[in-house]
Amino acid sequence: MTTHVSTIKQIAITVSDVEKALSFYRDILGLEFLFNAGPNLAFLNADGVRIMLSTPQGAGAVGANSILYFNTKDIETAYKEFVEKGAKVEREPQLAANMPDHDLWTGFLRDPDDNLVGLMEEKKHN
Predict the structure, then answer these.
(1) From the CB of residue 72, how many other CB atoms can be counted at a distance below 10 Å?
(2) Nearest partner of 5 among 67, 75, 52, 66, judged by Cα
(3) β 8-14/49-54 pair status
């Protein structure tokens, strides 16, 4: 069995000012506002794909490091297989957030041009 990603679940967009960007994406483009997670992080819904607006984090730069997050069913296996196939390691899968009905796990790889690619899995609570 070959592991593969499915749909895009979330796209992170680095912006200089979250409130100004939120105004554009929500008020001008009409995306559904979901929630803020602090002053520098906001989430919107683009027909089932989350859009995350964030100021630069770490080595990020405005407009230069948007991240595609791909949903997968077994993040640890998928990550290992993708690395074995030549993906560059950025950060191994780890727990990102405890949600009411699932735990959100994320891991990161780099493409050939060093663009960051996120993998995510929503692990249901038992």
Answers:
(1) 24
(2) 75
(3) parallel
R_g (Cα) of the chain, nearest Å: 15
For residue range 43-98, what is the model confidence (pLDDT) as tens digits? 999 989 999 998 887 666 666 666 878 888 999 999 999 999 988 899 999 999 88
Contact 116, 70 (CB under 8 A): no
Contacts of 117 (CB under 8 A, 6+ apart): 67, 68, 70, 87, 108, 109, 110, 111
| Of residues 31, 39, 40, 38, the one with CA closest to residue 10 | 31
CA–CA gap between residue 69 and residue 52 (Å, rounded): 11
**Whole-number Å distance between alpha carbons of 75 and 81:** 10
Residue 43 main-chain phi, psi, to 5 deg: -125, 140
